[in-house]
């Protein structure tokens, strides 16, 4: 089995990386940054997001594991003290692989045949660089609403506990192949109207955003943020690809939600 390690690059994460690398190679596993079967992410959820984007071209052949060197993460759910247990389980291949849905983001441009395709593990958000965002929202090729406000966010189920949650979205279990659309401060009065509630769309639905008041947008895909110019439309759907996580012990999603947001029993 081949592995690589992505560190947040602070002292604690780097120490742990050196330790894990020595243990794993000692057990006969091969360190391979190009074609790893296992990616060990050491740091926080942000470190795992970076690792996901680095290896997104080989999601079918790679499983991710996260160790948190700060607070408990949603993807980074192993403690540094558990490193030996984790390494032994890895070496003996005592783990299951679970899969979570991803979001496909396709950005089409006005003057080009080309479009850009991204995959998000958490979410994609759209904002206008300097004015109120005005976009038509189409669901399955039918006009749904004209949105005016700060922005829109489309999240995956596993990303529903991140930015989506801060925007008032629901927490979705990652076994549901779906995506969730949430509003950022929509303008709602007698003239302008949006639905005002988060929408959860199933795997076979499509959501398209069409610019009304300008062609340039700040689009985020997880931690990546880019200004896209001359945008014709942005298409969102549940991706065919899925992300794979190596699970060494049961840690049910709702327990992770409780430990992160209500009370951590240790
Ligand atoms: P980061 O690594 O500092 O992450 C920001 C926070 O989001 C951290 O506390 C992290 O643990 C948490 N987080 C990330 N993914 C999560 C998930 N799936 N469930 C629960 N918590 C999660 O910063 P970054 O590297 O820039 O991370 C980008 C992420 O930050 C984005 O994908 C977005 O979800 C999140 N974000 C959140 C807000 C907000 O809550 N208001 C605003 C912007 C971005």
Mean pLDDT: 95
Shape: elongated
CATH class of the largest domain: Mainly Beta
The helix/strand class is: alpha+beta
Series of H and E elements = EHEEHEEHEEEEEHEEEEEEH
How would you name the CATH homologous superfamily of the largest domain? Probable inorganic polyphosphate/atp-NAD kinase, domain 2
Bound molecules: nicotinamide-adenine-dinucleotide
Percent range of helical residues: 10-25%
End-to-end C-alpha gap: 32 Å
CATH fold naming of the largest domain = Tumour Suppressor Smad4
Strand content: 35-45%
Biggest β-sheet strands, sense, barrel: 11 strands, antiparallel
- Pick out the low-confidence regions: none
Radius of gyration (Å): 20 Å
Describe the 3D structure.
This protein is α+β, with helices and mostly antiparallel strands and 266 residues long. The chain folds into 2 domains: 2-95 and 248-261, Rossmann fold; 102-240, Tumour Suppressor Smad4 (Sandwich). The protein is built from 5 helices and 16 strands. Strands 6, 7, 8, 9, 10, 11, 12, 13, 14, 15 and 16 form an 11-stranded antiparallel β-sheet that branches. The radius of gyration is 20 Å and the shape is elongated. The chain starts with a strand and ends in a 5-residue tail after the last helix. The relative contact order is 0.17. The model has no long low-confidence stretch (mean pLDDT 95). It binds nicotinamide-adenine-dinucleotide.
């Amino acid at each position: 089995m081949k592995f690589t390690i992505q560190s947040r690059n602070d002292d604690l994460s780097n120490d742990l990386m050196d330790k894990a690398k020595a243990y794993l190679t000692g057990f006969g596993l091969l360190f391979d940054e190009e074609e790893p079967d296992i990616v060990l992410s050491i740091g926080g959820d942000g470190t795992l997001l970076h690792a996901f984007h680095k290896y997104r071209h080989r999601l079918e052949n790679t499983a991710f594991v996260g160790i948190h060197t700060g607070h408990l993460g949603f993807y980074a759910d192993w403690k540094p003290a558990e490193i030996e247990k984790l390494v032994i389980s890895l070496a003996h291949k005592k783990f299951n692989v679970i899969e979570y849905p991803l979001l496909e983001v396709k950005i089409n441009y006005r003057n080009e045949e080309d479009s850009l395709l991204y995959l998000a593990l958490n979410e994609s958000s759209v904002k206008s660089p300097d004015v109120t965002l005005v976009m038509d929202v189409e669901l399955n090729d039918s006009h749904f609403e004209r949105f005016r406000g700060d922005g829109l966010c489309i999240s995956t189920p596993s990303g529903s506990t991140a930015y989506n949650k801060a925007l008032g979205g629901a927490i979705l279990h990652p076994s549901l192949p779906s995506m969730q659309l949430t509003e950022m401060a929509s303008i709602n009065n007698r003239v302008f109207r949006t639905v005002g509630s988060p929408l959860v769309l199933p795997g076979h639905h499509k959501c398209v955003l069409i610019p009304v008041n300008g062609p340039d947008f700040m689009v985020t895909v997880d931690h990546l943020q880019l200004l896209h110019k001359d945008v014709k439309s942005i298409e969102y759907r549940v991706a065919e690809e899925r992300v794979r996580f190596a699970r060494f012990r049961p840690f049910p999603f709702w327990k992770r939600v409780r430990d992160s947001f209500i009370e951590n029993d240790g």
